[in-house]
Write a structure and sequence with these properties.
By secondary structure, the protein is α+β, with helices and mostly antiparallel strands. The protein contains 11 helices and 14 strands.
Length: 337
Amino acid sequence: MNFILHKNFSELSAAAWNALAGQSIADTPFARYEYLCEWWQTLGGGEWENAELVLVSATEDDRLIGVAPLFVAEYDGPRALMLIGSIEISDYLDLIVRAEDLPRFLSGLLDFLESSRPASWSALDWYNLPDDSPTLAALKAEAEKRGWTHHEEIAHPVPRILLNGSFEDYLSRIDKKQRHEIRRKMRRAAESEKGVRFYVVDGTADIDKEIDDFFDLMVQDPGKKKFLHPAMHEQMTVTIQNAHAQGYLWLGFLEVEGAKAAASLNFDYKNKLWGYNSGVGSEHKELSPGWVLLAHVIQWCCENGRSEFDFMRGDEEYKYRFGGVNKYVMRVKTTKS
């Protein structure tokens, strides 16, 4: 296996990267070339400073076997190798490698990082690994073999709803009180004289106009307004544009009286919807536009055969009221002895 340290993303083929990602243990929207490349350009929307790129690929007989998208930075301790995408805006991260190639890829990667010393580092500090990722066991085994210190902990819950059937089937499985509340609010919105309408932005839309409308709703939440500073605005804009161009953007709105009252930004990827962000206007609160829109999103998933709605990171109460069941993303820190 031939390992190469790359100076920038342009040295790797986006097509080959994404083809590998689609077959890999890291098959999420956050593993794709366009997402991680843009993340590096803005350093996570300004999350990082003084980060040093350590982008490593491995090939065998001219076939791409794995990609380790890494960078070195100081965070919660001495300089560590972290996964590109860490920490705040990428819900799932991992090495990009097929499951059958993972053990030898990881072993070879650590040997390469040790021998070539592309940057000064004393630990691996990997956030947002899915709790079912085989990387967890593989990295623990490598740490034990090398005599390194290894620590694993839960970083965040990632609630999700498994879907297999109609919207009524979904409603029948959640709490009775919540089921009645969802039906009541959807019915009130549907019967309102204010002309409530739900729609999903299609692939031919003027996406820049839709993005602006989404941000207008998002920043009506004071916390999200603070979050959406210029660098983060740039990061999110390009992320949305790229997802639209690649065909996995799902952006839905709830209109009231012809004006957008709530928005739901998701990735429609691998037959599931990944809930990335949302925005709700300050008007029409009597119609509960945020809740009504989320109910429509889940109904859309049921009617279009999606297997799951993933709320992604965070333990907000509404996720569980809609039937979310926890899985987790992990933080793993492995320190050289």
